[in-house]
Amino acid sequence: MASTLWREDHPGANGHKQITLFHEGDVALVLFDFIAGGVLADHEADGYVTIHAVAGELEVATSETIHHLPAGSLLVLAPGVRHDVTARVASQMLLTVHLVRPDAP
H or E stretch including 4? Predict the structure, then answer.
């Protein structure tokens, strides 16, 4: 599926394209396809984030450390952790976000 992303008419942003595979309620799964050097710029989510390096090699930087993720690696980030992702080589990433909503009063 990721290989078809680059055949779409719209250009990739910052060296990557993405497609949402599933989004229901508070859970989303998004597949990213990066060219070497592609970046998903500094951001955060109001929920748990899992980053699965499907292919290639990713670098995930937080304020605390830099995580090196070769293909097959999985990283879990707590809600509100700012991070960015850089593809060291052409890479694919499956991103899952599970939002955490405050309890209703």
Answer: helix 2-5
